[in-house]
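Dear colleagues,

As part of the handover before I leave the project, I'm documenting each prediction I ran so the next person doesn't have to rerun anything. This entry is a single chain, and its sequence is reproduced below.
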Amino acid sequence: MSALTNSIRTQANDWADAVSVLEDSLLAVTGERDAARVALSAVEAELDAALAEVARLEALLNPPSPTAALFGVRVFPHYKTRTNGQHAAVLNLLADLGVKRISGQIDHDSTSAVMKFYRDAIDAGIKLWLTAGVVHTPLTPTQWDALAAKLTALADGIELVSGWNEPNNARGTKVLPADWVAQTDAHQAELWRRFGGTYTIGTPQLWAGGTPAELVTDLGKLTLRGRYDVITWHWYMRHKDPGVVLDTSVLDLLETEFRRVLADASSPIVCTESGFFTAPNYTGGSNPVTEARQAALIPQLFDWYAGRGYGLSYFELLDDPDPSGAARESSFGLVRTPAIDPATWTKKPAFDAVRSMLT
């Protein structure tokens, strides 16, 4: 019995020694693994630093055009059932175009998909010129709070927050609200009270459906002094055939009259909508242009704004499907869209003209 006990004890001691050896080996391997992880982290840090240096050198060798900060293009990410609802395709086109600003709308109830689109744009290096709220739809205090939260979520990419979009436009109803002036003033006052000093605030973007005199008359009805940082307007060169060489004298008149009415000699100006439509079968009161002339006219229009250090957001990036070829609102885009499916989209000559203008 004693011999058996001694044998068991000897075997147990051998096992204990073997376990000890295994533990020592495991500790050694663990140490080597930890050292390898530290070394890998150091290599990754060096790689990140090298990539940052490459990006810095590329920026020095390929500086962005100074005009890129003054040009944007209009998008409608909240139109989820139309071409602009194809968010991934839209973002790819923006990257291809090389544009660094987009204009669009934000409201207290902007969807998560819209917010993601704007966030993805910001992360891609694009700044936002936003219209706050839906025209002729006053916000409650709670809704203003919700809008504030939406803006905060995008604050690192916001360059401009403007008042209502075309509050002097009757739109589909053909009848303006009787109190449109009071509504617009109240919205602008609250926009300034809440966000002035936090964001750059633009005026309401008045509709240019008539003559410059009519537009300026509507401007004079509003109480805007002390409630904005930037003058914003919409102006389409639509009242006569724009020809091949654009006559920008109307823009000179518009600036003079806006500054007179606002008693403002120095605030910058951003035109948040202007463009040329290419519907060949349109028969209304405006003037369509060929795609070739659209491509020639956009740089001329931009030259007027950029030459003064002002901003222009072209209306718009995408067409909408229009088999008739007669719908004005469906043909301002830089990209033809015969169907909602992005696979059917093709670039107009104006797309390449704008891309060249921005480089």
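The chain is about 45% helix and 10% strand. The CA atoms of residues 281 and 324 lie 7 Å apart.

All the best with the project,
I.
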